[in-house]
Amino acid sequence: MEPFKNKISPELVKCLGLHIERHLPGFDRESYEAAILAELDRLELKQRARLIADATGRILPETLDAKFHILRSILHPLENEGVDRASDAEGIRGWGMMPLGMVVTDFGLEDFDKSFALLKEMTKRATAEFEVRPFLDADQAGALAIMTPWVRDESVHVRRLVSEGTRPRLPWGMRLKKLVEDPTPTLPLLEALKDDPEEYVRRSVANHLNDIAKDHPDLVADLAARWLKGADTNRQKLVRHACRSLIKQGHAGTLTAFGLNPPKIIVDGPNIKTPKVRYGGAVSFDVELRSSGKRAQNLVIDYLVHFKKANGTLAPKVFKWTKVKLEPGETLFLSRDHAIRPITTRVYYGGTQAVALRINGKDFGYAEFELVMDGS
Length: 376
Prior knowledge:
By secondary structure, the protein is of the alpha+beta class. It is 42% helix and 20% strand. The protein has helices at 10-23, 29-40, 45-59, 64-73, 97-108, 112-123, 133-138, 140-147, 156-164, 177-181, 187-193, 199-213, 217-228, 233-242, 244-249, 252-257; strands spanning 265-272, 276-278, 282-291, 297-308, 314-326, 331-339, 351-359, 362-372.
């Protein structure tokens, strides 16, 4: 897979130079491109965008109106295209919005109205989810007042920006500390967007709620219970995705919202079938569940692998397994092979590891196995 940094490419730099030259008299395109291209190759994605933003900010006119006029003039005429849509001879879009959005943030904090008007146009051609955040940090009430009417905008990208741009813990974006502490100012926005006709928007609402759940789990559990009443399939999917972390954690209020009560079962397992696992293989285990309840039970069954860390302690990682309905007295047998092979997000250490179960948020069993690394 091509590195993300290559989205900010020499071709994009030359395309920017072309369009700026069309709208800025006296612009030295050759020097502009040469200065950026001399540094671009050694930099990562955000550093590349920052380099272009700084170079562009230096050559733009002095006044904010003149700066923004040129930025608006070089935007691609086609709106509502995806982030991977390339800039071309008609204008800038897609990943080209990243450095241009930085320019708006660099110079526009003095005028929210003009800046948000331009960011609204930019987000139609990619996204301005990172660029609205400094404005929210500087004046949260003022920024939200501008963005609130956008929940009814005809552009799916603008509506998504309302949710995505205000996420308290947006990956790659600056953390919005005020909203981390108190997320209630954005709840009316999420309420307005929860039944948006586009999944692109609803997915953002779910991710926003998942952010909130990291700091305010009870708030999200209460909201989930309310939103699930009379919910159609789309909203049910949204709420499930929003609560994915809470469900994995076994948060009681969230499980109750989904009708997942404490399980009444007798558990035999997990039973390890591969007590010694060589790195690159799989740990195999099974479990037998028998209902001890008088009514049918909906069960969400996950398993935990307690991986050994560098300091010798064990740290559990939750993995989804299955959902079942268990009738009174019914017995269910399940088996699983969990591969232990190289992945970029984990370093493995040989020695004792373990497997456990989590059923409707309650943990059952604990069975150890030995992981043998190459050369051991």
